[in-house]
Task: structure prediction
Amino acid sequence: MAYWLFKSEPATFGIDHLAACDKMIDSWDGVRNYQARNFMRDQMKTGDRGFFYHSNCAEPGIVGMVKIVKEASPDLTALDQGDCHYDPKATMENPRWVMVDVQLVKKFKRTITLKELRDHPGLTSMTILQKGNRLSITPVTQTEWDIISALV
DNA sequence: GCCAACGTTGGC
DNA sequence: GCCAACGTTGGC
Result:
């Protein structure tokens, strides 16, 4: 089983949005970055776990845990001209982008803040903490997962 | 294939 | 709102 970190802006789609979904399941669509797409397409398996991270907000940090309940499938929002993630280069034959379905496992009682993550000596090599990192989906190691889980 | 210009991300 | 860092685009 692998571990991941899913970044999202709470103003657009936060953990409470996921909690409000039917069975607390939603498609992680709208990803328009090849590296992030490839993680979903090539590596994510049903049963994998992920942290839910809030970015671009007053208190950035990890706010909960999700699991993958459906592996990669075409992200059809790319074909929808009315969707804000519409991609004119996507076609039925080659949808170009994929999504996975995630289910909320747990909303944490508090936010594990970005500062807290940065200050932890065991997390210095975490991808999300590297300078200039902007990927919305990043792998998390077992060690990082365990450390962060213990902070909750 | 190079690379300048541009758009986006995201912490602060 | 600022701005550093990065990805994408498109002319050549």
